[in-house]
UniProtKB/TrEMBL annotation:
<dbReference type="InterPro" id="IPR020904">
    <property type="entry name" value="Sc_DH/Rdtase_CS"/>
</dbReference>
<protein>
    <recommendedName>
        <fullName>3-hydroxyacyl-CoA dehydrogenase type-2</fullName>
        <ecNumber>1.1.1.53</ecNumber>
        <ecNumber>1.1.1.62</ecNumber>
    </recommendedName>
</protein>
<dbReference type="InterPro" id="IPR036291">
    <property type="entry name" value="NAD(P)-bd_dom_sf"/>
</dbReference>
<feature type="domain" description="Ketoreductase">
    <location>
        <begin position="120"/>
        <end position="309"/>
    </location>
</feature>
<dbReference type="Pfam" id="PF00106">
    <property type="entry name" value="adh_short"/>
</dbReference>
<dbReference type="InterPro" id="IPR057326">
    <property type="entry name" value="KR_dom"/>
</dbReference>
<dbReference type="InterPro" id="IPR002347">
    <property type="entry name" value="SDR_fam"/>
</dbReference>
<comment type="similarity">
    <text>Belongs to the short-chain dehydrogenases/reductases (SDR) family.</text>
</comment>
<keyword id="KW-0560">Oxidoreductase</keyword>
<dbReference type="GO" id="GO:0047044">
    <property type="term" value="F:androstan-3-alpha,17-beta-diol dehydrogenase (NAD+) activity"/>
</dbReference>
<dbReference type="GO" id="GO:0006629">
    <property type="term" value="P:lipid metabolic process"/>
</dbReference>
<dbReference type="GO" id="GO:0003857">
    <property type="term" value="F:(3S)-3-hydroxyacyl-CoA dehydrogenase (NAD+) activity"/>
</dbReference>
<dbReference type="GO" id="GO:0004303">
    <property type="term" value="F:estradiol 17-beta-dehydrogenase [NAD(P)+] activity"/>
</dbReference>
Length: 368
C-alpha cells in the first residue's frame, strides 16, 4: 500500500487560493495510481532529488504562501520549485521537461529574434592570432562559418586548417579597399554574412619627444590607418552587404563588433598614436550604430584591458606577472577566450547597441 502524502489533501485549497502562476502550472488532482509514490524534494539549488528534474524555480516564498503553502513544506527552508508543486499535487514521476509548465521565455519564436551564429558567416580581422583567433574558434564551435582576415598568411593558414571546412583564410590588408572587398567576396561565397569582428591592430610605443627626436609622423599615421581607418573600412563594406540581408524575426540583419582598448580612456606614456586610434574607434561607435539601426545592424565596441595577446605573451614572465597584478580582480591578464565569450554574448543580446564595453577586470591605468 502506498503512503499518502500529508499535503495531497490540500489540493482543493491550493486551487481555491492559487494565483496566476499556479493556475498557469495547471495543478491537477491526484489520480488514483496505487503503488506509485511521490518522488522529489527540492534540494535548494534548483535541481530536484530523485529524478533529475531541472525545472527552474518559478515563484518566490510569498507567492506560494499566498497559495496556501509554507516554505517548510519543502523541508529545505526555501520556496517550492515548479516541479515540486506538481509532485505535491499528483503521484508519480515528474512530467517531461516543459510539460504543464509556463512556456520557456526563450521559445523558438523568441530565439529567432536573436542573431544566430549557427549556419551564418562572420568575418574576423586579425583572425590569425590572439583575440581574433579565439573569436574565430568560438564562431566555429557555435556552428558558424568564419573568414580569417589577416596579413599573417602562415598563422591564418594554420588556424584555418585546424578549424576545418567552416573556416577560410583570406590574406587581407584592412587599410586597402580592394583587399577588403576581396575578403568580403570570399565571405559571401560561404553563405549569408551576418557579422564582422574587427580585431586587427598594432600597438607601437613611441614618445612625442624621444631620445632620437620627435615622434615619427609615419609611425603615427600607420597606427591610425590600421586601427581606426582599417576598422572603418571593414565596417562600411560589411554594412553594405548586411543591409541587403533578409531580417530575422527581430528585424536584425547583422552585428558589427570593433575592438578599442582601455588606452582610449587611460592612455599611457608613449601611446599617443595608439590611444588616438582606439579613441577614434570608441567615438565612431555610437554615430555608426545610430545610422545603421535603420538597416537592422547593431554596432558595438569592446575595450579590452591587459590581455594575453601574442605581444604581451612575448614579454618576460616577471613582466607578465607584474602586469597581471595591476588588475584589481581577477588579478591576472585577461584571456582571449573571455573576449570571445563577450562577442558571443553581444551577438545574442539584441538590446546591446551603440555601446562600448570595458573588458578589463576593473583596471584604471595610472598616469605613470
Amino acid at each position: 500500500m502506498h503512503r499518502r502524502h500529508p499535503r495531497l489533501g490540500r489540493v482543493e485549497q491550493l486551487r481555491r487560493n492559487a494565483g496566476p502562476l499556479e493556475q498557469a502550472i495547471g495543478i491537477q488532482p491526484p489520480p488514483a495510481h496505487p503503488g506509485q509514490r511521490l518522488l522529489h524534494e527540492g534540494d535548494g539549488n534548483g535541481a530536484l532529488v530523485g529524478g533529475g528534474c531541472t525545472h527552474q524555480r518559478l515563484a518566490g516564498k510569498k507567492e506560494w504562501e499566498r497559495a496556501g503553502w509554507r516554505a517548510q513544506d519543502q523541508g529545505r527552508g526555501g520556496p517550492p520549485f515548479c516541479c515540486s508543486a506538481i509532485v505535491y499535487a499528483h503521484r508519480g514521476a515528474c512530467p517531461p521537461s516543459g510539460e504543464g509548465l509556463p512556456p520557456d521565455p526563450k521559445t523558438q519564436q523568441e530565439q529567432e529574434r536573436y542573431m544566430e551564429i549557427k549556419d551564418n558567416v562572420f568575418v574576423v580581422t586579425g583572425g590569425g592570432s590572439g583575440l581574433g583567433a579565439a573569436t574565430a574558434k568560438m564562431i566555429v564551435a557555435a556552428g558558424g562559418k568564419v573568414v580569417l582576415a589577416d596579413v599573417n598568411k602562415e598563422a591564418g593558414d594554420a588556424l584555418a586548417a585546424e578549424l576545418g571546412a567552416s573556416a577560410r583564410f583570406v590574406a587581407t590588408d584592412v587599410t586597402d579597399e580592394a583587399s577588403a572587398k576581396a575578403c568580403f567576396a570570399a565571405a559571401t561565397e560561404l553563405g549569408t554574412l551576418r557579422g564582422l569582428v574587427n580585431c586587427a591592430g598594432v600597438a607601437p610605443a613611441e614618445k612625442v619627444v624621444g631620445r632620437e627626436g620627435p615622434h615619427r609622423l609615419e609611425s603615427f599615421a600607420r597606427t591610425v590607418s590600421i586601427n581606426l581607418i582599417g576598422s572603418f573600412n571593414m565596417i562600411r563594406l560589411a554594412a553594405e552587404i548586411m543591409s541587403k540581408n533578409e531580417p530575422n524575426a527581430g528585424g536584425e540583419r547583422g552585428v558589427i563588433v570593433s575592438t578599442a582598448s582601455v588606452a582610449a580612456f587611460d592612455g599611457q606614456l608613449g601611446q599617443a598614436g595608439y590611444a588616438a586610434s582606439k579613441g577614434g574607434v570608441v567615438a565612431m561607435t555610437l554615430p555608426i550604430a545610430r545610422e545603421l539601426c535603420r538597416s537592422g545592424i547593431r554596432v558595438m565596441t569592446i575595450a579590452p584591458g591587459i590581455m594575453e595577446t601574442p605581444m604581451l605573451m612575448g614579454m618576460p614572465a616577471d613582466v607578465q606577472e607584474s602586469l597581471g597584478k595591476m588588475v584589481p580582480f581577477p588579478s591576472r591578464m585577461g584571456k582571449p577566450a573571455e573576449y570571445a565569450a563577450l562577442v558571443e554574448h553581444i551577438f545574442g543580446n539584441a538590446y546591446l547597441n551603440g555601446e562600448v564595453i570595458r573588458l578589463d577586470g576593473a583596471i584604471r591605468m595610472a598616469a605613470k
